[in-house]
Structure formats: structure tokens, C-alpha cells
Amino acid sequence: MDATMADHPKAEAFLDDLRGRLGDLVDGSSLTRALYSTDASNYRIVPQAVLTPRSKDDVITAVGVARAHGVPVTVRGGGTSCAGNAVGPGLVIDFSRFMNRVISIDADSSTAVVEPGAVLSTLQNAALPFGLRFGPDPSTATRCTIGGMIGNNACGPHGLSYGRTADNVVSMTWLTGRGDVITVSSGADALAVVPGLDSFVSEHLAVLRTEFGRFGRQISGYSLEHLLPENGRNLAAALTGTEGSCGILLEATVGLVPRAQAPALAVLGYSDMATAADDVPNLLPLHPLALEGLDAQLVDVVRRAHGSAAVPTLPAGAGWLISEVGGATSQDAVDAARKLVAASTSTDAVVLPAGPEATRLWQIRADGAGLAGRTADGKQAWPGWEDSAVPPERLGDYLRGLEALMAEEGVSGLAYGHFGDGCVHVRIDFPLDSGGTLMRRFLKRAAALAAEHGGSLSGEHGDGRARSELLPSMYSPEALRAMEAFKALLDPEDLMNPGVVVRPAPLDAHLRRPQARRLRATDGFAFAHDSGDITNAVHRCVGVGKCRADLREQGAFMCPSYTATRDEKDSTRGRARTLQEMLNGGIVTHSWRSPEVHEALDLCLSCKACANDCPTGIDMATFKSETLHQTYKGRLRPLSHYTLGRLPQWLRLAAPLALLINLAGRVPPLRRVMTTMMGADSRRSLPTLPRVPFRWRKPPRTGGQNTGGPKVLLWVDSFSDAINPDIPRDALDVLFAAGCDVEIAGPGACCGLTLISTGQLTAARATLRKTLDLLLPHVRDGRTVVGIEPSCTATLRSDLVEILPDDPRAGELARSVKTIAEFVTSIGWTPPHAAEKLLVQPHCHHYAVLGYDTDQALLDAMGCDVEVSAGCCGLAGNFGMEKGHYEVSEKIARAGILAKASADPDRRILADGFSCRTQVRDLAGLDSRHLVQIMAEALRRSTTAQR
């Protein structure tokens, strides 16, 4: 579909009618249509409009209007469909934004009533106080919706013990394609709600009994076996997994199960994945709660990205089975895990009780879809054959056949999945940049292989646009006609998600990647991890949607803008999709200068959390900077680029006028004028400038102290020098106390961060070259560069080599830069005892680029009682200062650091970042300190006590 679709007279008439009835809930803008043109699959279909309903009546009204205009309807939850189930050419209905409530929990009946957009983790949290949970749990549990799970018949790791979603649905309120609202459930009269359904079952008894429901993970096609009398005439279960092609879920009552008390993991090592699969039948009689397969190469991806510390202790082997077992107590679970190890044929094994190591391993498994987006040699890998399943006893042989097929076709992928159920997830490096020919050939051969082993094209993701065309490989013509007849009873006009399951679209139609033009890095960032290919870099985002989950309580930081607005355009995925559409050129047509691109990137805080938290490693801060650079180079820029973007220069000019500027900052009218002139929000305050910047005063001690000690070059950044000079002075005291031989970097060494964040990359490149000239001689003299401001330190560790890729000195300097905590830890210094109660706000760049574990360990060693506020403070350098960002900046802060500070006012705030300190002072009048200030104060107290 091209950009003119929304301008077609029939489309305009439909949109006018829909807007007239539902108002602002309907969005037909080019940006929103771009955002919803794809899901987590390979497919791109631009819709006419998107509806975010607030009620059942909104949905019923919208479907009535669509039916009257002959417009197809596609429903969407978290948008994490891997098979193209959630894209369509007409109206897309997104339930996740407003219709997302857990309406009730009934502990007596162990049921819950939910709206279709309710996120699974929200339901799990609501059920937790009752000791209950929803059984199926896909790896996308923190953002997938119950409606999406019902649409696909999702399972997850615990499908092994709790069954598929179809096994856990009690009843549903269902809107058919005819416009009827019916209640679907099970029982003797359950089929009567759909005229003709009883007769349909009678006419198709033989095929329903022989071709459907042959094994647990036969998810492909419709699960019509549930309609049989011996299966309880369960219409609710039969409609589960119909992928939106037979109607729309409006509300569901689902069953809940008791939560396992103290599960343990048995991690079993094997020589390869197929050998691991061979052992599955030996382990199933021990009734594990979950039995997952994991390729060692996926774990290697984590090690390369985040270091060995991110990976728990694992047994030797090239492939593993991860078995979860339960018990009344932790020890019972560990004993059960050891029995499972004894029953296995593994060559090595590790037992992990419930705790941090087990959690880390489950997280690696949960991130599989993102981690597998690149093969072992770094090629982009795609879904398409990411969800096949066979009976567990056939799994080993099937995997060997699949490996052989991949070798014959010259492709590869990293396997993982729900091996206990015979389900295999693997993303394959199809060359989609050049078209879908190889993918088509491979999928047809793979489908035949799965059918040969009695398997299913899909084990939980559904068929969608990726596999519906292949259904004849596993179903007879009679079975296919039965599915078509079933759909006709509920959707006779074929308006519900057409092209899926019944009358399927070709599997290589509407592929997204072949439509993207190739864009190479030029004079901005190098995009070195993608060999300079910006198109490949932006397609790192495969749509898994982890950026839509609020994981702050689990220690994650991504994505602050989405947690504040709940708008898809403000998620990392939404921004990536907009950039991908820019490359496609269909509806986002003005390259880097496209208004849609700038609107999507506007609320990006450039926090870099996505680079760490997203399993694909996409870095939206880099794309925002590149976009601004390419848009404004050689052109007039926004005012804030000249002021906030060049703040270090302005601070140097302002230093002699500190008294006057401080006075003006205390007079509200003058302050508002000054902030307005800066392009900043007038509600923001101005920082108080010191009478004497750090560099104006000779340090009390300089080089020559502690000769022979560890050699340090203390790099005093612009903010520490011109705004917080006490911090570098305290840093000196700490380094001298640690026995270091300290030199102070001369003036002019700047990281250029404010230039980078505003996309002034030409100026940033010149600044960084000067910094190399100033700092590198000290490095070659054996000194470690120790930074104070975490964002500046992170810039020299990461962006430096991206902006100066051809200068070998850049890597040399980057490897020599450390934080205070990293350096004093590396020399084995014992820090002073502090024993403070602290609320810590790590700077986003500290968390994402440098890592905060070393600082945390240092604070522990000092005897501090630490609570960490995960997530961005909301200011994020120039972001929170700029006009148009204040409300979002404040909302992020009040839901994060300020909420925690209010809940525990006895904790003093530790914030190494200048932005973080500014934010808590500006919005709440709270004081905060840098780590070196806490250490220096502890040293002074220790000295006083010794006297």
C-alpha cells in the first residue's frame, strides 16, 4: 500500500465517518500509519487508520463502520507478533493503550476477568497476592497482552505444565464479523450461539478427529478439535488461536493456577542442541514445570555485549536444557532438580536455586528473540520459521534435519525454545535485503520437513502471513475447507484479518526489508557495529517491544518516554519503525528531514538505555543525533542548539559574570527572559554559578604527590569546573588518599556531549580531536584518565570511537578512561567507612555504557545502605530543559527518583550526574551529592576521629 491510500475518496469517506463517531480515538496520520505498518514480523502493510478504543462500544461502533465501508479490520495487542498476525490494510485496533484493565480476580474460582489489552505481567501481579498466576507465559510477558495471547494461542515455557492459552480460557465476550456480540464458552449448548455451528461439527466429525489436535503444540490452522463433543464443545478454546480472523475479543474470563513456591533450575549441558533434544523424553516423566533449550551461541552474544558477569555459571556444552522444577521448599526443589540431573544423559550439569543467577538465566532465555536477531557471525536473522513444533520424541531428529536443510540452503540461525513441548524458535539469516526468494524456498522445504515428523508450522506464534500459505503441507484439502467453512460462519464477508489462515496471502508478499533503500554512514556516526550500514543498524529493531515494558523495579532504564506517555511513537520500537519507514519511502518521504521522523524522535531523551536494555542493542540516542546532524548541517538550527548545545563555551564566558547571573536567576521575570532566550522552558531554574570555578583556583596539591603511586590524569569536565568545583576538589582528596600520583588535565579537553546530543557532529569531531591531542600524551605516559561526570566519561568510552572511527588514537584513549569507582577498585584501595543511608540515582549513560555494578560494590564496601532508583531522572542533559519537554521530564522524575525520595526521606540522594542533581533540586528542592563527595566526607570524618 502506498502513501496515497489515505487520500483515496473511499478511504477518506471511511475516515470521516469513523472520526465523526469516535473523534480523536481515530488516527489516520502518516506517522501513526507508519508506526502500525509492521509488528515483530517481516511484513509491512500500511493501514488506513488506527483506533485506540476506550470501551467495548467503541470497538463495536468502529467495526460497524468498517463493515459498512467494506474495510478490513486487524486487531493488535502489544504488537509482538512474529508472523505478521497484527498488520493489515484497513483499520488496526490497538487495545493496549486504554482497554488494558484487569477487571477482577476471583480467588475462590481461580479466575480473572480482563480486557483484551491487559498485559500479562499486569495480570500476574494482580494475581500474586492470592498465590495465583496465569499459566502460559511467553517471553514477552512484560508487554504482550492477554488478547494477543488468545489470538495466537500462546504458551511460553510453562505451557509444559499449565497448558496452552486455549486450555486456560473459561469464556469470552466476542464480536463476530457479522457484528453480533456473543458469549463463548464450553458445554452442551455452547455451539448454539453461532448459527450453523452444530451442523458444521456433525458434517466434519471425521476430519476434526483425525487431523486436528494430534499433539499439544499443533497450533497451526484453527484448533477445531475443541468443538468435538468428547472435548466439551469448547467454542472458547476453538476461537483461541484464530488470529483475529474470526472476530474480536472484547473481554475474557481466564483460569488461574497456583504459583510454584520455590522453583529451582537444573541446567544440563550437551554436545549440541539435537543431542539435548534427544534427552527430552527421558526427562518428561519427572514432570518439570518447564524444559527449555538454549544454544550456547546465544549466551555468547550476551557475553560479548555485557561481559561475563552478565551470565550465570553454566555447565560445559554447546547446547543446554534448562529445567525448572518445583517443591514445597527451596531445598525440596533443589533435591528434585538433582534427581532430574541424575535421570539425564547430560555430560555436565549445574543446579541453581531460586535467586539472582536463576533470574539472569531466565532473562537470557526471555531475550532470545532479540538476541537471535543476529547470527553467530553477526548477520541479521529474521523470523519466518521461528516457531515450528514436532512431538517431543521426534525433536532430536527434526533438529538434525533442520540443521542439514540450513546448511544446504547456505543459511544459519541460533536455536532455542520450549523443548519439553517440541517447540523450536530459530531466526534465520535470509538475505531479505535482496528479496524473499530464498526464504520462500526454505520455508516450503522446512514445512515439508516438519510435516514429515508429524509436526506443526507453528507451536505458539500462529501462522499469520508467514506460514498460512504453507498449511497444505500439514492439512488435507478437506481440513482446509473445514477451516474456511468455520470462518464463514463467523465472518462471511472476510473482513476480519483477511489473508491469514484462510485464503492466505503469499508468504513473500509485503516483505518489509526488501523495500528499504540502502543508506551508508557518511560524515556522522560510523555505525561500526553494522559495518557502516545505517539500514542494517536501524533494522536491528525486530519489534520484540521490550521498550514498552516498565522494568524499573527489575533495575532496567528503558524506555523513559514511553513509560510517561504510553504512546507507541515514544517507544524505542516506534522510533525505529519510523526510521525504517523513512528508508522505505512509502509514507515517510523526506528522508532525515521528514516531520514524522522528528516527531517520533522529539521525546527521545538520548539516555542510551535501549543500547543496554534492548536485546538487539539498538541505540536510539545515536539515531537522534545522526538525524539532527543530517537535517541541520549547513542550515539554521533551533535556538537551543546554539545555547544548550554549546553550553561549555557559554559557561566559560559566564564565569566572570557569575554574581550578576546568579542575581538575575533569583528574580523570576529576569529568569524567565533568560531561559526563553536560551530556548529553554521558562519554568526551569538556572544553575547557581560559583564565585570561583575549579580552574581559577590552584589545587591545594598537584603532581608530585605520591610519586610512584598509581598514575592518574584527573579530567575535570566543563560542568564540574564551572558549576560544581567542590566535586573535583573532593575527587583530588580521594585520589590522594588512595595513594595516587595525580595530574590534572589542562583546560580545553571536552567530550563534546552537548554538541553530540544536539546533532552538531562536525563541531563535535573537531572538539574530540582537540581532546585527543590534550589527553593522549598523558595516557602514553602511563596515566589512566579518570572522569568525574558520568555522561562525559561515557562519551569518551563510546561515542569517541564512533565519531572518529579512522583515528586509532580514539580507541587508545577510550580504553584508558575510567570512573572514580572503577579506578580505585582496580588499584585495590580500601575505601573509608561511611555507613550512610543512600538513595542512588545512576546517570543513564553511567548505567548503559559504563555499568553501575562497580559503584554499587564500592558503596557496599563502605558500609552504605543503598537503594537504587532505576530509570532516568527525566532531565537527560538538554532534553528536560528544552521547550516542549517539561511535562514529560517532570512526569518521569515524579514516577521515579522523586517518588522514591518521598517514600523514604531519611535517605540522602547520591547522584553523580549533573543532570540528575539539577532535576531533583529543580523539581523538589532536594540536595544530592556525588560519590566522591561521600568518600571525601568519610575521609574527613575518619581523620577527625583519629585526632
Shape: globular
Summarize the main sheet: 7 strands, antiparallel
Query: How far apart are the termini?
Result: 80 Å
Count all strands and give the number. Answer: 26
Q: Spatial order of the strands in the main sheet?
A: 15-12-14-13-17-18-16
Treating each run of at least 4 consecutive H or I residues as one helix, how many helices? 43
> What Rg, in angstroms, do the CA atoms define?
29 Å
Q: Helical proportion?
A: 40-55%
> Structural class, from helix and strand content?
alpha/beta
Low-confidence stretches: 1-6
Query: Which whole number gives the mean pLDDT?
Result: 95
Question: Strand fraction band?
Answer: 5-15%
Outline:
The chain has 947 residues and is α/β, with parallel strands linked by helices.
Structure description:
There is one protein chain. With 947 residues, the protein is an alpha/beta fold. 40% of the residues lie in helices and 12% in strands. β8 and β9 form a beta hairpin. The longest helix has 20 residues. The protein is globular, with a radius of gyration of 29 Å. The N and C termini lie far apart (80 Å).
